[in-house]
Amino acid sequence: MAVQTVLSAINQTLFEQMKKDDSVVVFGEDVGFEGGVFRATKGLQQEFGKDRSFDSPLAESAIIGSAIGMAVNGLKPVVEIQFSGFMFPGYNQIVAHAARYRNRTRGLYNVPMVIRMPYGGGIRALEHHSESLETLFAHIPGLKVVIPSTPYDAKGLLTSAIQDPDPVIFMEPKRIYRAFKQELPDKEFKVPIGKAKTLKKGEDITVVAWGALVRETEKAIKGLEDEGIDVELIDLRTIQPYDKEAIANSVKKTGRLLVVHEAVKSFGPGAEIISMINEKAFLYLEAPPTRLTGPDITVPLPKGEHHFIISPERIRAKIKEVMAF
Amino acid sequence: MLTKKFDPLKKKIFQVLDHEGNITDEKLVPKIDDETLLKMYKTMLLGRIADTKALQYQRQGRMLTYAPIKGQEAAHTAPIAALDKKDWMVPAFREMAGMLYKGADLEKLYLYWYGNEEGNHFDEELRILPISVPIASQINHGAGVAYAAKYKGDKEVAVAFVGDGGSSHGEFHEGLNFAATTQSPLIVIIQNNQWAISTPREAQSKAQNLASKGIGYGVPSILVDGNDPLAMFAAVKEARERAINGNGPTLIEALTYRLGPHTTSDDPTIYRDDDDLKYWEKRDPIIRFKKYLIDKELLTEEEDEKLQKEYKDFSNKTFKKVEKSGLVPLEDVFNYTYAELPKDLKEQLALHKKLAESEAK
Asked: Which ipTM score applies to this complex?
């Protein structure tokens, strides 16, 4: 057992899986020698050599497209896209090929690959460094989309992702890369893809969040019980295929739902989850299921980003609003 | 080295058989045994006839939109003939004869254009990747397949095809560059058929030839007469040697001509000059190759006629079989989205089953 951050847990997992399985290769821009701009792949090249951990040319379609070819020919590539905002040049490969290869070949070729990418705001970054684009992946059949919020989940989910037969988009909330620490087993363990986690049981309202906003929601609900509001907090952990039962069962108990996400509002994951609740738990509702999200605007640069960020205060206010309906 | 001798920057074109089917220089003739030569010809001929038939079926409303290969048979068949069985073929979508040479059944190839994904499910040992409709993105897949081969120490190469239009695409450049920097055993073949739908080669690129694009990536490159099966064979053979010896990728531009439309939805008569077509019809790879084989006494006109009849019958019989294959079952359109069907998709499948059943009543 050692204390780990989200980032060090990812690094530990990559070491562990590369040691265990020769077919795991890790590459991307600055991934090899430097160990990635956030150091998630630090030390891998030194340990496993340049064939297994290397700096690719600065070219997202080549990174993702070649990973597809490697997966077809027996490897398990784990590639890094430096920031999720840079994935667009490689998006064609993700959507047109990674997501469809199994279907296109009627199961002849699976593409077991993982595309890691830091995402989300709150780190005073440049343009295209702060977006939450999980919807763009979750909407595409054939992809799995995973977002951990703790070091434990980062390790357990990444282990599952690397061993998964399907392509997995592994989005890392960079705001909490180093902000949250946990003691983790040094041995391999898995957290299943597709299973949400109830972080706090409650009776009055279900709050669903993921990534960095799980941490903000935890802050938001502290002390709420003293005010007579007993929140049930669910960390979704997998955005697609997501754990509908966990949310529906919770809402059947609490009668209220708030989805909190950093992604912009319209057509976002909140809309999907609320729609699902209307299908599965409508008659249990005591208030309209609702969402607290980023507005439908371009994420501002740091001097304006505070307008966009979802603070614990805003989450708390929204919970009270739903309770007061 | 052919790539040195026929430097594309010096506008040199590698050719072994001239337009009439005569050898240009005995020293350039690659070693190909008679059996392989005949197999190359027969596969090109089967490709031509199956292609002509496919066009007819489409015109009769029996086949979906189809991309004809007429005129390009040598450019994609000879490269596959130059490979080992364990090498990988990474097609674009206009390489039917090459796929046949690699071992794909005509039935599968027709099935794909008939509208069934099962047509992309080849025997695993054939090592044929599926048809890729998005342009040029398969070059990166080829680079990855090749990287994996090198990583595992397998002496095998990947051959990826792209069109002249595809050579303008970012994916082409990224894939070639990736294979070059990782020294992966990839051979990229541009089938330059002069047209990207209606956009002519001249509007596609200001490069003097497309092969020269490889030079910028440090990739040995060569411009080859793509209607010359012997030259295409020789160029790929040399590229393969280089690749399995750890010397990285090669770019080959096969200078050819699309004698038919881009697809059955296209009408080339509105953008193509008749004289141009006549010029290229005289350079037809099948006519040229046939003359060579007859001169070598490997084939007679009578045998050729017999083959043509045989292939017509075979194409008809195969297509009739495909027509009987019917519709894809409901389970099949759900089952291949993920390795294991997620719970929610199981529910959606059940719902669609119910809908289908109520419609049937």
From this structure: 0.96
